[in-house]
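It is worth pausing here to work through a concrete case rather than discussing structure prediction in the abstract. The textbook approach is simple: state the sequence, then state the predicted structure, then interpret. We follow exactly that order.
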Amino acid sequence: MSKSFSIGVDLGGTNLRVAAYGAEGVFLETISLKTRLADGRHAVVSDLCAAIASLLRRYGSERGCAGIGIGSPGPLELPSGIIRNPPNLTGWDGFNLRHAIESTLERPVSIENDANLAALAEQAQGAGKLLGSDSLCMLTMGTGVGSGFILDGKIWHGSSGMGGEAGHIVVDPEGQRCGCGGIGCLEQYASATAIVRMMSESSRTPASALEVAQWAMAGDPVAQAVFHRVGRALAIALTAVVNTLNLPLYVIGGGASDAWELFAPTMFQELLSRSYIYRLTAPNSDPMVEDKAGVASRTQICRARLGSEAGLLGACLYGLQDPLQQANELEMRIG
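Step two, the predicted structure:
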């Protein structure tokens, strides 16, 4: 077999995507399904494994499968692959996702937090590559708000694999109760779900965050106010991260980030007034056109470059890495 491939899985609260990815850097095939959360976790795992098996049958005879990367919502206990109190996966607390998948497929898989994998992809092939940065923080605005940290080219996990949950930084201590059990988390003000909820608190109930964005673009003042709240919440959370870590690059992705023009002005204005580290290091121009030589000393904040493909691509790239080496490195990093 002259070429190898990997399989990547992006397990989301709404959608489930599984792809075969060639080592030469191309997607061979992508399977997209709805995540059947209402039918229980074993139904979701069954769908996931069936899709993986079909790709193994189609491409395994011509190529060698280097590995299977699974991106899952967190918090995840790693390297065991046990999900702990996931805000957007009701009934999954304590579920050993790795064991469930491996026992069905009868082959090893590599489990990672989905936002970590999106961040890995952005560092390797997205904004990080364009700006020459091997360290970044990524926030993903989807069903919830995920986050991933890449430090010196490696995923940062924390002491038990649960590091990087910036979506649960408190941005309003008297605010909305969050699925994590906290109050006023970023996720409750900057996710697609939150955008719909905040708009619904007025006299209208939108079908999606996209519809709220369309209303805002058309001049609806209530919808515009929703995105001002999004920008303010992001700025408060970013202030905590920027002041603490002083990373060179912060990337914002996920479906709701398509409304960048609606929330980014408020986000940058609030960030300048809140973060003294950002005031000292703010770039002088668009980070995508600024001289790369100045990136290391500047705090760049920009939209993700890979769009909705980041999480899936990251899972595929992770699958191309040696699973045993991953496990050994992870054990060493988190003890």
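Step three, interpretation. The chain has two domains: 4-116+309-334, 132-305. The two ends are 37 Å apart (CA to CA).
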